[in-house]
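> call design_seq(struct)
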């Protein structure tokens, strides 16, 4: 493959917008296929949008925001160089983190929620100490 024909890697903005799209889609409980039908594209196209493999046309970004019921700016969160990708959206872009957050939100009892937070904080602080002992 010549230097002119190298495959392009996704732009960082495209990756962030795709990640945000995925998070908001999951938060609304939509599958890729459901979102694709409402958007008028294939679910494979939604997959490419979410991975940053394909750029999302501006008109589709506007439609996506309307379908998801979020401001257009929500799809661009974390794209600014001054805004690190440590946003809450970046945190829950991992499916396991999202599942944990959703399950936690479903717990109604205040003391149970507090106990879970305390447990997770203890595990998080113990993890680096355990890693140090293994060295």
């Amino acid at each position: 493959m010549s230097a002119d024909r190298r495959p392009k890697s996704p732009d960082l903005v495209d990756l962030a917008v795709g990640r945000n799209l995925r998070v908001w889609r999951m938060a609304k409980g939509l599958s890729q296929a459901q979102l694709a039908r409402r958007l008028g594209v294939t679910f494979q196209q939604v997959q490419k949008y979410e991975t940053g493999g394909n750029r999302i046309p501006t008109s589709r970004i506007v439609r996506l925001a309307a379908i998801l019921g979020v401001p257009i700016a929500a799809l661009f969160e974390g794209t600014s160089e001054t805004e690190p990708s440590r946003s809450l959206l970046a945190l829950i872009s991992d499916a396991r983190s999202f599942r944990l957050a959703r399950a936690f939100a479903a717990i109604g009892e205040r003391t149970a929620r507090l106990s879970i937070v305390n447990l997770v904080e203890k595990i998080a602080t113990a993890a680096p100490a355990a890693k140090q002992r293994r060295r």
